[in-house]
């Protein structure tokens, strides 16, 4: 009888250890997220299930074109792409991204640009100082984010620049649906 009691106790310890480890991983290292809406098409699709890496930005600063999840409000997280970094002036003119006056290619939009008709636009012209906050450059500790589906995205053009401390993590892997399983990024 004592042997059976010890065996149950060992199983209970193993189960509690596994649950504790899963909790730590989920809270501090990686987290699942489901893409909600079309704002990141064609890169991410509505209902794609992804893993968000929460430790990347504890080790390094965000990079241009990283796809990040951030707290848009107390109730809602958004997923968008970083376009502007602290200290940079961001501007779009005739479908071209300009950072500090230098054109920057957005290779993730190449297919969209090739398929659009002459009268269509992907990104309407704007300059950073026209956005909420009216900044001349992205302030320290903030980033400017846009959805890849620029015509259907609530992003920095409406929200203003995003505090880096509101970033949950970097979206790194689509794991569902299986036919879309892939690492994401630039």
UniProtKB/TrEMBL annotation:
<feature type="active site">
    <location>
        <position position="80"/>
    </location>
</feature>
<keyword id="KW-0645">Protease</keyword>
<keyword id="KW-0378">Hydrolase</keyword>
<protein>
    <recommendedName>
        <fullName>Signal peptidase I</fullName>
        <ecNumber>3.4.21.89</ecNumber>
    </recommendedName>
</protein>
<dbReference type="GO" id="GO:0004252">
    <property type="term" value="F:serine-type endopeptidase activity"/>
</dbReference>
<dbReference type="GO" id="GO:0006465">
    <property type="term" value="P:signal peptide processing"/>
</dbReference>
<dbReference type="GO" id="GO:0009003">
    <property type="term" value="F:signal peptidase activity"/>
</dbReference>
<feature type="domain" description="Peptidase S26">
    <location>
        <begin position="9"/>
        <end position="176"/>
    </location>
</feature>
<dbReference type="InterPro" id="IPR036286">
    <property type="entry name" value="LexA/Signal_pep-like_sf"/>
</dbReference>
<dbReference type="Pfam" id="PF10502">
    <property type="entry name" value="Peptidase_S26"/>
</dbReference>
<dbReference type="InterPro" id="IPR019758">
    <property type="entry name" value="Pept_S26A_signal_pept_1_CS"/>
</dbReference>
<dbReference type="InterPro" id="IPR000223">
    <property type="entry name" value="Pept_S26A_signal_pept_1"/>
</dbReference>
<keyword id="KW-0472">Membrane</keyword>
<feature type="transmembrane region" description="Helical">
    <location>
        <begin position="12"/>
        <end position="35"/>
    </location>
</feature>
<dbReference type="InterPro" id="IPR019757">
    <property type="entry name" value="Pept_S26A_signal_pept_1_Lys-AS"/>
</dbReference>
<feature type="active site">
    <location>
        <position position="39"/>
    </location>
</feature>
<keyword id="KW-1133">Transmembrane helix</keyword>
<comment type="similarity">
    <text>Belongs to the peptidase S26 family.</text>
</comment>
<dbReference type="GO" id="GO:0005886">
    <property type="term" value="C:plasma membrane"/>
</dbReference>
<keyword id="KW-0812">Transmembrane</keyword>
<dbReference type="InterPro" id="IPR019533">
    <property type="entry name" value="Peptidase_S26"/>
</dbReference>
């Amino acid at each position: 009888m004592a042997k059976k009691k010890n065996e149950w106790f060992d199983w209970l310890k193993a189960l509690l250890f596994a649950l504790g480890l899963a909790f730590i991983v989920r809270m501090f290292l990686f987290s699942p997220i489901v893409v909600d809406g079309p704002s990141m098409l064609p890169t991410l699709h509505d209902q794609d299930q992804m893993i968000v890496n929460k430790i990347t930005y504890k080790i390094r600063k965000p990079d241009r074109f990283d796809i990040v999840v951030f707290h848009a409000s107390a109730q809602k997280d958004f997923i968008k792409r970083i376009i502007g970094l602290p200290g940079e002036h961001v501007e779009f003119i005739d479908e071209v991204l300009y950072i500090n006056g230098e054109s920057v290619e957005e290779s993730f939009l190449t297919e969209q640009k090739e398929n659009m008709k002459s009268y269509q636009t992907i990104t309407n012209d704007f300059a950073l100082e026209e956005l909420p906050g009216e900044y001349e450059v992205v302030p320290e500790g903030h980033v400017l984010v846009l959805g890849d589906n620029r015509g259907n995205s609530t992003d920095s053009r409406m929200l203003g620049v995003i505090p880096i401390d509101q970033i949950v993590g970097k979206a790194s892997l689509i794991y569902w649906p299986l036919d879309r399983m892939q690492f994401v990024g630039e």
